From TrEMBL:
<dbReference type="InterPro" id="IPR036396">
    <property type="entry name" value="Cyt_P450_sf"/>
</dbReference>
<dbReference type="InterPro" id="IPR017972">
    <property type="entry name" value="Cyt_P450_CS"/>
</dbReference>
<dbReference type="InterPro" id="IPR001128">
    <property type="entry name" value="Cyt_P450"/>
</dbReference>
<dbReference type="InterPro" id="IPR002403">
    <property type="entry name" value="Cyt_P450_E_grp-IV"/>
</dbReference>
<keyword id="KW-1133">Transmembrane helix</keyword>
<feature type="transmembrane region" description="Helical">
    <location>
        <begin position="26"/>
        <end position="45"/>
    </location>
</feature>
<dbReference type="GO" id="GO:0016020">
    <property type="term" value="C:membrane"/>
</dbReference>
<keyword id="KW-0503">Monooxygenase</keyword>
<dbReference type="InterPro" id="IPR050529">
    <property type="entry name" value="CYP450_sterol_14alpha_dmase"/>
</dbReference>
<keyword id="KW-0808">Transferase</keyword>
<keyword id="KW-0489">Methyltransferase</keyword>
<keyword id="KW-0349">Heme</keyword>
<keyword id="KW-0479">Metal-binding</keyword>
<dbReference type="GO" id="GO:0004497">
    <property type="term" value="F:monooxygenase activity"/>
</dbReference>
<keyword id="KW-0472">Membrane</keyword>
<dbReference type="GO" id="GO:0020037">
    <property type="term" value="F:heme binding"/>
</dbReference>
<keyword id="KW-0812">Transmembrane</keyword>
């Protein structure tokens, strides 16, 4: 008898006081308790709300709207692996109000990356991040069919002739950097007994931008790096962070700097284009601006100057963090595995060594005959793929193939359906670190790539097989690659077109470094930092070096 019970003391007094509480008190109480109620309601709703038989399982989360974002943001691999154990390869999670269906494993990647562009749309997932940085009318700010033509134009600029010129330029830049940068002062002192050190990310970021600007970006951009271009780049880069991915526009100084830098950088490139058009025969250029100037869309329209400018910015941003991350992880691992570094050095001696202990210069063709260097880069990209998750916006209801995942009951035709207006996410890193596929999956072991009958070689064949399935999405025939457990450059329609350039750049830089210095790591190889858009190493990431020989 609740009424009788509450009529007795001490409850009667409380009840009376609650009844007499002023409205303002009620309002404050409601406000204070609203989040608690929302959390409780959200938790209860997940347990009792009727669920469509076709809905993939939803990852339980306490916080409404935020959903699983905190766990995912701090440790996406741990989060996905735990969800995989609980729910299987297909599940939906809430990430800051977005409903994201994650599809794991080789079949899961194939589902997202091999899907039709009318169903799975990259623009819808990325444009709010990329358009304010790249600028209008390119990449994800134009119809997909137009972007595919733009990808073709970029491919035209990545010629063997240009690549041949790049190897020498890159080695030159590394040489100059090591002879002048204060981080390499111990190297400059020509003392082979002393150890110096450099921060893996900071040093590799600088070498990456110096080499990319000298080659793909062109002479004017390289010269600009010593002047105002560096600041513009830094301001623009400040608009390429996880916060920008979450919120396209905020009233913050970093957003204002981003917008000002975008405009100035766009003008900077347009100015280069105009000057080159005015003096067509002044000198030979091997860069992308020169190639884009000549390209025309289907129907005959030339690329407009601002489109060339914005594509150049897109290429700068696409290559900068990905190559920096790969280089940073590579030097960290080499420094922690002197045996691998020694094999890499020996490979250089055998192919390039002169009788007096010096090295001949590298040529583009040499890069195909350096299996140790190749496997070091491949293995780094397996364990630390810079872009570890790939998202698409879902534009129509898409059934999940039963071979990937299906509800246990046969209702709803026995398939899951990813609903329109939500998102899908593939996570190549999960397959690349899957212990069911790779031996010692989490160990960085480049030698796994030299076993031609092994898992790694098989995965690579599926990814790149020249004789395999080829598709032309509008930028020339490419291997489909969507069914490989190794996809550091993505797969399908949005596959990276910078792969060959990245290999050339990273390979030449690593070779030039190991020729000049020995590396050691005083700490363990750092863990992944998931708070950056691209997978970077956490602190400490200081690499020790010692000059190899006197000059
Ligand atoms: C696309 C990785 C370097 C230009 C991609 C994608 C990945 C990737 C995973 C697919 C993204 C998606 O499907 O949403 C990498 C890695 C690199 C690298 C790991 C270096 C180690 C470069 C460089 C350039 C570049 C140097 C430019 C020269 C592009 C472009 C796309 C792309 C234009 C196409 C985006 C699309 O079609 O939506 N890259 N990339 N990348 N990358 Fe790279």
């Amino acid at each position: 008898d609740w009424a009788g019970y509450l009529a007795n003391e001490p409850w009667a007094g409380y009840v009376e006081r609650v009844k007499q509480m002023p409205a303002s008190r009620w309002a404050i109480l409601a406000l204070v308790n609203a989040p608690v109620l929302a959390i409780l309601f959200n938790a209860l709703w997940q347990k009792i709300a009727p669920r469509k038989a076709t809905d993939p399982p939803v990852v339980f989360h306490w916080l409404p709207i935020i959903g699983s974002a905190i766990w995912y943001g701090n440790d996406p691999i741990g989060f996905f692996q735990t969800c995989q154990e609980r729910y299987g390869d297909v599940f939906t999670c809430i990430l800051l109000g977005r409903k994201v269906t994650v599809t794991l494993g080789v079949k899961g990647s194939n589902f997202v990356l091999g899907g039709k562009s009318t169903a799975f749309n990259a623009e819808g997932a990325y444009t709010h991040l990329t358009t304010p940085v790249f600028g209008k009318d390119v990449v994800y700010d134009c119809p997909n069919e137009v972007f595919m033509q733009q990808k073709k134009f970029i491919k035209f600029g990545l010629t063997t002739k240009n690549f041949r010129a790049y190897v020498r330029m890159i080695e030159d830049e590394v040489d100059e950097f090591m002879r002048k940068d204060p981080r390499f002062v111990t190297y400059q002192q020509n003392d082979i007994n002393d150890w110096g050190s450099f921060d893996a990310i900071a040093a590799m970021a600088e070498i990456t931008i110096l080499t990319a600007s000298r080659t793909l970006q062109g002479k004017e951009v390289r010269e600009g790096l010593n002047k105002s271009f560096s600041q513009l780049y830094s301001d623009l880069d400040g608009g390429f962070t996880p916060l920008n991915f979450l919120f396209a526009n905020l009233p913050l100084e970093s957003y204002r700097k981003r917008d000002r830098a975008q405009k100035k950088m766009s003008d900077f490139y347009v100015d280069i284009i105009k000057r080159r058009r005015a003096n067509p025969d002044a000198e030979t250029h091997y860069d992308m601006i020169e190639s884009l100037k000549e390209q025309t869309y289907r129907g005959g329209a030339a690329l407009r100057d601002h489109e060339i400018a914005h594509l150049m910015i897109a290429l700068l941003m696409a290559g900068q963090h990905t190559s920096t991350a790969t280089l940073a992880w590579t030097v960290l691992h080499l420094a922690s595995r002197p045996d691998v570094a020694a094999a890499l050095y020996q490979e250089q001696v055998e192919r390039f060594g002169n009788a007096d202990g010096s090295f001949r210069a590298m040529e583009y063709e040499d890069l195909r005959h350096l299996p140790v260097l190749d496997s070091v880069i491949r293995e780094t990209l397996r364990v630390h793929p810079p872009i570890h998750n790939i998202m698409r916006q879902v534009r129509e209801d898409v059934p999940v193939p039963a071979s990937l995942a299906a509800p246990s009951s046969k209702s709803g035709n026995g398939v899951y359906v990813v609903p329109k207006d939500t998102y899908v996410l593939a996570s190549p890193i999960i397959s690349q670190l899957d212990p069911r596929i790779w031996v010692n999956a989490h160990t960085w072991e480049p030698s796994r790539w030299s076993d031609s009958a092994g898992v790694a070689a098989q995965a690579l064949r599926t990814y790149t097989d020249e004789a395999g399935e080829k598709i032309d999405y509008g930028f020339g025939a490419v291997s489909k690659g969507t069914e490989s457990p190794y996809q550091p450059f993505g797969a399908g329609r949005h596959r990276c077109i910078g792969e060959q350039f990245a290999y050339l750049q990273i390979g030449t830089i690593v070779a030039a470094l190991v020729r000049r210095v020995e590396l050691r790591l005083p700490t363990k190889v750092p863990e992944h930092n998931y708070h950056t858009l691209i997978l970077m190493p956490k602190d400490p990431k200081s690499v020790h070096y010692r000059r190899r020989r006197f000059d």
